[in-house]
Write a structure and sequence with these properties.
Layout: E1 4-9, H1 14-24, E2 29-34, H2 39-49, E3 53-57, H3 58-63, H4 67-74, E4 79-83, E5 90-93, H5 103-112
Parallel strand pairs: 1-2, 1-3, 3-4
Antiparallel strand pairs: 4-5
Length: 113
Amino acid sequence: MITKRVIVGTCGLLLGAAIESLLTLEPDLDVIGVETEDEAELHTAIELYQPDVVILGECITQRDTSLLPRLIIRYPGLSVITLDHEDNWMHLYQKQDILIVQSSDLANLIRAN
């Protein structure tokens, strides 16, 4: 079984703690809850734990709208999920490098997403 390491940035919210608690029940997830009040703490946690996925409350991403692109560029292969505490929406952000050899490759990429 492949284990995925997940950081849950709680941002002081009960929602983050609840998600951490629920995901801990999944045997293939190594879940680490961290208090991430700012970007520096988040980078420290990412570099220390080397996660596959980071889950953040929108309290962090709303303060700095350029944080998501910086995370995705700085940590290739990292998936970032943001949570909105007001509804059930989650947003997934990933960086993918795809070689386009011919025009149909671009068209197929558009169709796949």
